[in-house]
C-alpha cells in the first residue's frame, strides 16, 4: 500500500488502518540522554556566537544543547546563590590569589 492509500484509509475512518499501523516497522527514535522531561525552545544566536558554543561543546565532548543547558543551569544557580561554580572560574580565582597585583 502506498502513502496515498494509507492517508485515504485514515481520513475515511477505515478500521483496517489500525492493522496497517500494527504491521509497520518501529520508528527507531533516538534514546533521550536524560530521564527528566525536557522542553524544547528555539534560541536565535549570531553565527559567530553559535560557532563558539559549538567549538566549546566539541572540546568538552558533549552536544551543543547539553552545554547550553549546563550554562543556563549554572547561571540560574548563581541567581539563587546555590553552589554551582565552573572549574574555570575556580582556577582563575586561585591564580589571581597566587599572583596578586600591586595596588
UniProtKB/TrEMBL annotation:
This is Ribbon-helix-helix protein, copG family.
